[in-house]
From TrEMBL:
It holds the Pfam family ABC_tran. Residues 1-20 have a biased composition (Low complexity). Residues 1-27 are annotated as: Disordered. PROSITE patterns: ABC_TRANSPORTER_1 (PS00211), ABC_TRANSPORTER_2 (PS50893), GH18_1 (PS01095). The keyword Plastid does not apply. One of its GO terms (molecular function) is ATP binding. Coiled coil: none annotated. Residues 26-254 form the ABC transporter domain. This is ABC transporter ATP-binding protein. SUPFAM superfamilies: P-loop containing nucleoside triphosphate hydrolases. Keywords: ATP-binding, Nucleotide-binding, Transport.
């Protein structure tokens, strides 16, 4: 069976499961972030207010340089904001020292990146086990189940270089879910994938959201907005528009 077909079937099967209570809400007030100083200072976030309800799937759109990745990074505690208030999954990030942000990242959020960021010398299964060891969360015996849920039971002992782009992204999704995060943050998760492979990854992201987890996805691809409960557009470091979708589409109906 083709990988994309397998992934779609896995997602459909998972869709039949009981849904957990929603989690992973986000609240930002007056958030700013400036890179550099003096004449070269660049305000990447310029007073961002944003409310995301627990369990929402959010798509963030906007031109290159508008602050999308910076927004994702401050919500995920990858870097601190300069000013403003940030609360994620009930945890207040404002003014927290770096060690608290590390703990927050380990316990509350998972990350998926455009170019997968898998450890090349570790197999799919070992990439997941390494995340569990690093964070002290999850049980190593759960790694095969996580890979099975993304349709990769038969690729567990393959190294990243032996996997297609779509398969690598599914490993990276399984790795992100290994710590059972409240909120999954995905930066251009389909940016390096073709349409069929990209939609199979979107189906998995949608499924993880339907199980109650918050998902925030940054993309250049406006078609992906159809999936979202909430569509946020950024411009010049500010939230330009926030739009709610009355009836989010299924991932397999999206194309680009
Ligand atoms: N580490 C950094 N040092 C200096 N400037 C940065 C840094 N990270 C981002 N910037 C600048 O901040 C602004 C916002 O960047 P950001 O990556 O958040 O935008 P983006 O909307 O995600 O862009 P893209 O769609 O191209 O990925 C840009 O002008 C960028 O050049």
């Amino acid at each position: 069976m083709a990988d994309t077909e397998a992934a779609a079937k896995t997602a459909a099967a998972a869709g039949a499961q009981t849904h957990a209570p929603p989690r992973g809400g986000v609240r930002l007030r007056g958030v700013t972030k400036t890179y550099g100083s003096g004449e070269t200072a660049l305000r990447a976030l310029d007073g961002v207010d944003l409310d995301i309800e627990p369990g929402e799937l959010v798509v963030v759109l906007g031109p290159s340089g508008s602050g999308k990745t910076t927004l994702l990074n401050v919500i995920g505690g990858i870097e601190p904001a300069d000013t403003g208030e940030i609360s994620v999954a009930g945890t207040e990030l404002t003014g927290r020292p770096p060690k608290d942000l590390v703990a927050f990242r380990r316990e509350r959020v998972g990350f998926v990146f455009q170019f997968f960021n898998l450890v090349p010398t570790l197999t799919a299964r070992e990439n997941i086990e390494a995340m569990m060891e690093l964070t002290g969360r999850g049980d190593r015996s759960g790694a095969p189940g996580l890979l099975g849920a993304v349709g990769l039971s038969d690729r567990m002992d393959h190294f990243p270089a032996q996997l297609s782009g779509g398969q690598q992204q599914r490993v990276s999704l399984a790795r992100a879910l290994a710590t059972d995060p409240d909120l999954l943050l995905a930066d251009e998760p389909t940016g390096a994938l073709d349409v069929a492979t990209g939609t199979s990854v979107l189906a998995l992201l949608q499924e993880t959201n339907r199980q109650g987890r918050g998902v925030l996805m940054v993309t250049h691809n406006a078609s992906v907005a159809a999936l979202a409960h909430l569509v946020v557009t950024m411009r010049d470091g500010r939230v330009e528009t926030v739009r709610r979708n009355a009836a989010p589409a299924d991932a397999d109906t999206v194309s680009w």
